[in-house]
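During the reporting period the student researcher (J.K.) took over the structure-prediction task from the postdoctoral fellow and processed the backlog of single-chain submissions. One of the processed entries is reproduced below for the supervisory committee.
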Amino acid sequence: MRIEGRPLGLIANNPKHLGGAIDADAADKAARFLQLCDAYDLPVVSLCDTPGFMVGPEAEKTALVRHVCRMFVTAASLTIPYFTVVLRKGYGLGAQAMAGGGFHAQCFTVSWPTGEFGGMGLEGAVRLGFRKELEAIEDAAEREKLFRTMVAKSYETGKATNIASVLEIDQVIDPLESRRWILRGLDSCPTPPRRETRKRPCVDTW
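J.K. obtained the following structure tokens:
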């Protein structure tokens, strides 16, 4: 894509496919694309809206961990500017991968006000983290009430504005400011001049 004529590479999650989760094929595709951008000095914009990496027995059959780790390894070798904008969901290691290895790993990570953050999906986190407390309540209605209260508290804590207040991300921005942030990022993190030799020994084949 181009913003004011300046070329950029773009990666983004698609919530219409697996809810935006990153599976083995998506991780391979993203890692190779990042290599391609780095080889041709194209800064990268990442639009993050993911519940994380895919989970479950079927996902594990695809050697998921081996594939998704490629996103972290590739991101660690990039020398191009990398900017992350969290649109909505920013959960788990999948969000860290979309941010180029971590929210502090690259040039900046900002979020729209709709951003949600957490170590994993919040409903699942409450069920796992407070399992004993929930199981101790015999009345099903009371158990559900406590569950909903805990989930609501988690959503409040994980709001973009709260996450930014403890410096986990750089800023919460108006969506209209996204282009300006990217342009400012390009100006503050200029791409290093091209070397005479090849920048990368190769870009992975499909």
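The committee noted the following: The chain has a mean pLDDT of 90.
J.K. will present the remaining backlog at the next meeting.
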